[in-house]
């Protein structure tokens, strides 16, 4: 059946909670809650999508292309496609945002894989999902919703996608992909 994102999932290491609200061709939208002290585990860039944060409760701090941006309840922050960014809960209360990716592309399936890896604890100590396994899934599904960790240069990311695909075939990561998406 695959991972049902409408039921939500937690990343206990980073303090994040995700629950899909809706998805269509145009937009993938989810509730994102971040505990006090919580954060996105790594700086990244969405190569083909903009990311829109509607701040419902709390305060958020972003670093977008090296520039600090803060938002509070009622604010909307748009991260244009191609811009590196990371976000943190900047308050002592739970941060609640509604987040949208535009266009949606295959974000639902990407999040199924992220949810599965997180739930099965294929993460590091900060809560970042296994990059080799995500690279395998991205390549396996011919993903259009590419998200690249900004610590990996573009040429190296392309190489990592190919190498991870071969490693995934060798180590049987196809079974995880099917478990999370089918």
How would you describe what is shown here?
With 182 residues, the chain is an alpha+beta fold. It has two domains: 10-102, Jelly Rolls (Sandwich); 107-181, no CATH class. The chain has helices at 107-119, 131-140, 154-171, 174-181; strands spanning 9-11, 16-23, 28-34, 44-46, 50-57, 59-64, 67-72, 76-79, 85-89, 95-102, 147-149. It has a six-stranded antiparallel β-sheet with strand order 1-2-3-10-5-8, with helices on one face. Strand 6 (59-64) and strand 7 form a beta hairpin. Helix 1 packs antiparallel against helix 2, helix 1 packs across helix 4 and helix 2 (131-140) packs across helix 3 (154-171). The longest helix is centred in the last third of the chain and has 18 residues, at 154-171. The protein is globular. The model has no long low-confidence stretch (mean pLDDT 96).
Topology:
Elements: E1 9-11, E2 16-23, E3 28-34, E4 44-46, E5 50-57, E6 59-64, E7 67-72, E8 76-79, E9 85-89, E10 95-102, H1 107-119, H2 131-140, E11 147-149, H3 154-171, H4 174-181
Antiparallel strand pairs: 1-2, 2-3, 3-10, 4-11, 5-8, 5-10, 6-7, 6-9
Helix pairs in contact: 1-2, 1-4, 2-3
Outline:
The chain is an alpha+beta fold.
Number of H- or I-type helical stretches: 4
CATH architectural name of the largest domain: Sandwich
The shape is globular
Q: What is the N-to-C succession of helices and strands?
A: EEEEEEEEEEHHEHH
Give short descriptive properties of this protein.
182 residues, alpha+beta, Jelly Rolls, 2 domains, six-stranded antiparallel beta sheet, three-stranded antiparallel beta sheet, 4 helices, 27% helix, 34% strand, globular
């Amino acid at each position: 059946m695959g991972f049902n994102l409408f039921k939500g999932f937690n990343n206990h290491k980073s303090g994040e909670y995700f629950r899909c609200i809706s998805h269509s061709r145009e937009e993938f939208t989810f509730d994102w809650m971040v505990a006090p002290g919580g954060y996105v585990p790594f700086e990244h860039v969405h190569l083909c999508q903009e990311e829109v944060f509607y701040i419902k409760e709390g305060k958020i701090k972003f670093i977008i292309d090296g520039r600090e941006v803060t938002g509070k309840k009622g604010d909307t922050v748009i991260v244009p496609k191609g811009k590196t960014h990371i976000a943190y809960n900047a308050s002592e209360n739970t941060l609640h945002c509604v987040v949208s990716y535009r266009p949606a592309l295959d974000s639902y399936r990407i999040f199924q894989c992220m949810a599965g890896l997180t739930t099965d604890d294929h993460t590091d100590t900060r809560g970042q999902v296994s990059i080799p396994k995500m690279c395998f899934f991205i390549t396996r599904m011919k993903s259009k919703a590419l998200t690249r960790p900004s610590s990996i240069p573009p040429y190296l990311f392309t190489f990592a996608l190919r190498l991870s695909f071969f490693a995934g075939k060798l180590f049987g990561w196809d079974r995880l992909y099917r478990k999370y998406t089918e």
